[in-house]
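Re: that chain you flagged

S.,

Sorry for the slow reply, it's been a week of failed gels. I finally had a moment to sit down with the sequence you sent. For the record, here it is as I used it:
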Amino acid sequence: MQIGVLALQGAFIEHEQMLAKIGVSSFEIRCKEDLNKPFDGLIIPGGESTVIGKLLFELELFEPIKKMIDDGMPVYGTCAGLLLLADSIKNDNRKYFCSMNIEAVRNAYGRQLGSFYAEESFADICKIPMTFIRAPYISRVGDDVKVLAKVNGKIVAARQGKQLVTAFHPELNDDLTVHNYFIKMINGEI
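Prediction finished late last night. Pasting the structure tokens below so you have them in one place:
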């Protein structure tokens, strides 16, 4: 198995390290030519959604990645990645991939000082550490979206088909639950 990690900005190296810990190969996607390599899933890391969105267009990555997602490529978006996959952002009129039937609230917990840590249940598997940094949350989900985690009543993880999103950064902790979940999702095990 090979996972492409969008490496334009944000915590992409940490995702690569998590994948290595579970024995999964990965490579960085930085330019259009990188999309020619074979891969089984895509991770869109946290970072700044507006910067990542701008670079996706400038580097001519947006349209081919959108097509891959629309054609069923498994994708996992953390934090900014969640915003890029959401079909709407409540407090921002920008649109990106719009592939997931969710509405998100950008910077929902405030600025950098609003960052926090929690431990809550993920996908009824176990309680996991959750690090939130200028995080969004999901304010609406469609009928075809499964809620996987909530913190203080707010939806912070969800899945729709082969798309997975978390408002938190599992790559910044040692727990491998979310990355294992993504790989099992790709393999059709869950």
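What I noticed first: The first helix runs from residue 12 to 21.

Talk soon,
D.
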